[in-house]
Amino acid sequence: MLGEKWRGTPEQILDLVAKAGYEGVEFSNIMIGSYVREPERFAEMVGKKGLTVAALAYARNGFTDEVEFMQDLAGAKDALTFCSVLKVPLCLGGPASQEAGDRKRKRIRAVRFYRTVAELGAQREVVVCLHPHSHHGSLMESAEEYDEVLSLTRESGLRFNPDAGHIVRGGQDLLDCVRRHGEWISHVHIKDVDEQGQWQTLGEGAIPWKAFFDTLVDVGYQGWIVAEEESSLARRSQRKAIRKNREYLETLGF
Question: Terminus of the chain with fewer CB atoms < 10 Å: N or C?
Fold first, then answer.
């Protein structure tokens, strides 16, 4: 999760993930590089590692700038083509802005983008999900903000990609959020966070993981659960961090 600070290659990430014992992998448009326009080649490379492509994440600057709408959409169309070929979901980053201003108005601008991409996705039989976050100028963190954006995009077919860490870090009750929007969940991200809002490896933060997974079962979720890693350990050793997460998941039966 180093974004543009990452100096490695997609191949190196696949090696780390495969050796840690995971079944699949999800890349963002930043980390995947030119492979976003070479889906078959990427899938072949992933398959050789014994992995499956779980999804593709797409984010730019928060999707709230009207001037950048067409650029945002162009990138989304590339991502939709990738997802259409590999038959995987597209996960869109949450609304964000680094500039001061009317938060609600900015979210409404993002809603236009989300609805447009979801409708294009439906034409290509691609499931499009919204992944709210809790940093980078996020405009969607509270329960009320989740309810607002998800309700305004529902008719477009946009689905929900909850991230347990971001939900808790944004101040929400995690299990309540999952229950409220459970029928719209099509993809799940997990990472742990402590009470001070600092990212931790799985099991070392404040998230009640067993209760979370039980709640996913209760709402009927049956898709991928993708473990992300943004803790300080990952900045020192990606290999140790993702292996530590895998070992913790094994204690929970995964």
Answer: C
